[in-house]
Design a protein that fits this description.
With about 350 residues, this protein is α/β, with parallel strands linked by helices. The chain has helices at about 1-10, 25-35, 45-50, 55-70, 75-90, 100-110, 110-130, 145-160, 180-190, 205-215, 230-240, 245-250, 265-270, 285-295, 300-315, 320-340, and strands spanning about 15-20, 95-100, 130-140, 165-170, 195-200, 220, 240-245, 270-275. Helix 1 packs antiparallel against helix 14 (about 285-295) and helix 5 packs parallel to helix 7. It starts with a helix and ends with a helix.
Amino acid sequence: MENEKTEIKLMPKIELHVHIEGATSPQTYFSLAKKNQVKLPCNNLIEWKKYFNFTDFNHFIDVYGMAVSTIKKAEDLALIIEKFYEYQEQNNIIYSEAFLSASFLVETFRNQEILEAILFGKQQGENKYKTKINLIPDISRHLPETQSKVLELAIEGYRKGIFIGLGLGGMEVNYPTNLFTDTFSKAKETGLRVVAHAGEAVGPESIWEAINDLNVERIGHGIRSIDDENLIKYLRDNQTPVEVSPTSNYNLGIVSSSERHPIREMVDNGLNCSINTDDPEMFSTNISTEFELLYSQGFSLKELYQLNRNAIDSSFIDFDEKLKYHKILDEFKTSYNNVF
């Protein structure tokens, strides 16, 4: 068992659902607040860290908004992107598709500033760290008035090779997907890949709406799918990728801490799931912890490898790149098993 736990930790991993802002440490935000003279609701770093102990989803949104409000200069954005590369390498993640809270960025900076800062951060990260990251600007549901600006940014960044897709996140309640239908249609026409958070804080109807209104290619979270047999069948038959983030669901009270995570039922029903951290620094987790959690809940090592492979196959990279990451995983598995 100890050998298997070590293998889980060392296994090269792929992540499809992680927010760069949520992977940025409280220390970094605290330093940015001090540098940029942003008043936080806390007087010191210890209190600021405690502020991250969320009471519910709305509190989480408030904390998230306060954290990103410390980003006042383009150089701050470049910094957190570079640090994200470092964080992913430290956690043995060889490839990521990561969200950026673009609804905030477009209200704070000009598009050229954003793209130049992102490009600089990516170049610094790629030069220093052995991990690859593709970025997906994200529209916040509760800020629908920003969607046109985010789409404009996403298209411009896509044409420059900076972005790979367009996402939809934030509060599901009171902000249905039909508010964003035209925006997502235009994004797909341009060539952007599309994904939406759905079925997290709202039931399976949210997932149906993301599928029918936005024609998304992946579902973020999607754990409420188990409440609808017809939806389970649709997701299974179409092998629609579902990005699952167990610790996030527990911390936000979406899943009770006394319950086994519903990913067990999702996988048993043949759904195409991957394992992710969502906002690791805000939820005090990392990708190995997520895999270890599922292992503790009865997932076999073989199943965990398959969930990792699902992430490769569900990614937005081309066929040859997918083969490359499968080969890396195969070589690790072979070499590690030969050790014992």
